[in-house]
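Hi U.,

Before I forget, here's the chain from the pilot set. I'm dumping it here mostly so it's searchable later in email.
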Amino acid sequence: MHPDAFHVTVLFQPTLTFMDRIAEVLPFGHEAGRTSSAVLDEFVLKVYLPQLEDKVSDMFHQAVTSK
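Structure:
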């Protein structure tokens, strides 16, 4: 299977659950959770959304130009 922006949900939910558990278990967990959240924010803004935009644009172009 090729990398695809639409597959990100397979990784996101387990990652978010893991980060929530870190915040509950570790004494410094809330700080670690914020740092991890910042990493995910960066990923979404710089990697996921541009790939998703490209994918949707390509699909739209194919739908419009196909006969």
